[in-house]
Amino acid sequence: MGVDIGGTKVAAGLVDHEGEIREQRRTPMVANQDAAAGLAAVVSAIDSLLQHAPGAKSSIGGIGICAPGPLDPYTGLVINPPNLPCWRGFPLAAEISRIYRVPVKVDNDANAAALAEVRWGAGRGYSKVFYATIGTGIGTGIVFDGAIYHGRTGAAGEGGHMSIDYRGPRCGCGKPGCIEVLASGPAIARRARARLSESGGASLLRDLAGGEINAVTTEMVGRAYAAGDALATQVLEEIVELLTVWLSNIVDLLEPDIMIVGGGVAKMLSGFFARIRNRLPQVCVNPRPQEIPLVLARYEAEAGIAGGAALCWNN
Amino acid sequence: MGVDIGGTKVAAGLVDHEGEIREQRRTPMVANQDAAAGLAAVVSAIDSLLQHAPGAKSSIGGIGICAPGPLDPYTGLVINPPNLPCWRGFPLAAEISRIYRVPVKVDNDANAAALAEVRWGAGRGYSKVFYATIGTGIGTGIVFDGAIYHGRTGAAGEGGHMSIDYRGPRCGCGKPGCIEVLASGPAIARRARARLSESGGASLLRDLAGGEINAVTTEMVGRAYAAGDALATQVLEEIVELLTVWLSNIVDLLEPDIMIVGGGVAKMLSGFFARIRNRLPQVCVNPRPQEIPLVLARYEAEAGIAGGAALCWNN
Q: Does the pTM of the predicted model rise above 0.90?
């Protein structure tokens, strides 16, 4: 079973040995009350799933949980996530394991999603895998030889907080010019609004937003680009150049066997993947970066459920 | 035995099981003639060392060679280093092994030096080690569980070519704003010259350079800083801030157990190491980056010899 805990919802799903999600339930998360209420919300999601799938309870090999960080994947302790104020130093894995009497693993969503891609998705058969999910933020995960690379305390793999602009806008993490601040979904919308303000010219984007520049969303940029709008295309080309420099840093440091990109923004950008690969040789010291596959993730909205389940299959 | 091949010299040394360099010889490299002449220069260095250390020949367990990249550490093939035009697709490990009838390993200098630090130096006892050497360039090496992390084809660990400034000056690798272009030895001298030109005021640096701004060297900046010169201090503080952002990227992606810095510029900057560690929490998403030791390397000019030998001890 994979469980994906966010600030407002819990998704729980049953995942088979091919990585197919057989059943799933989404229920509200109670993040801003006490620890017990938060736990009860997760238990409610799991129970709802189990009630809906008779016989599942006996066939579950483990429960893997994606939760917002910081957390300790080695012990399953949730430390103090800004999005889950109910839990500070909360032994989530131990509590869930006590209730359901199965092994429980906890990890952050990008690490878990990376593992799901290696186990069941685009990363199958690769030994050094870099995964990124681009959406509201940019999360990343590194998988070496089938295991998540966790670093010293479990906090490694935060590639979204690598800066490519030391003089750039400051991220919530404190660093200037993190790729998350420059190229995540909200950054795309911000950049589109700025370009619209500057240009004053016609753009489908202006129409989609009903003439209200501030109403422009990331999704509108994607629609305008798909329809061939010049301004939206320019915005995405700028974002792609930033992502190229960022990925070139990853290639020169880690030279992975494959790079996998998921998340809400990934599909919008997938038409640029070939361009990114072709440009990498110009901005890498690596002699053959264009040989590294750059591909879309298998999992989209269900990456958290699949990721959670992958944490269990791994053990 | 460790052998360090550069564009102009070959250094060969005998290294004992404590990492002490017992004997060493430096001879000229012949880099711009044919492959055989290049090989003969390396053989000459090895023979000179062996002649000077009677009995050594029988006690050598292997020969480890540091050479400029790109090269293939898996096969010991030198691909096409700009500094060694004599060798293109040259099977260096096989040739040396044929002559001396011992195992031979070839790797790039920063990778090998990183391994020497883990085996005998500042990295002993650590499982996830990030090493950087700051000099004419910035080279880096990653060692996980006592083994160099090589990546897909052996070209990983080029952290000196990670950009922190996508709008910055272009590096030889093609990427804008690599840390090597911004913070290596030559970058320090360049920055000092620029600050001197701007300020027009008094500075010990001006005196050291005999009034010739263009004569300012990295080493002079170090001397002026050691003597308390304000302008030299400012220049190094700017460099240190760049290195801090770069190291914060490494911490957020890899969260190593220790970061080791060597090379000609490292000592000059070592007085800033505590400041860098104290600043990391402000620019990392990692919750406890200040706990990661940031230390000087054991090996200085002899890093290549020790590194070469470490390649052999590893096997």
A: yes
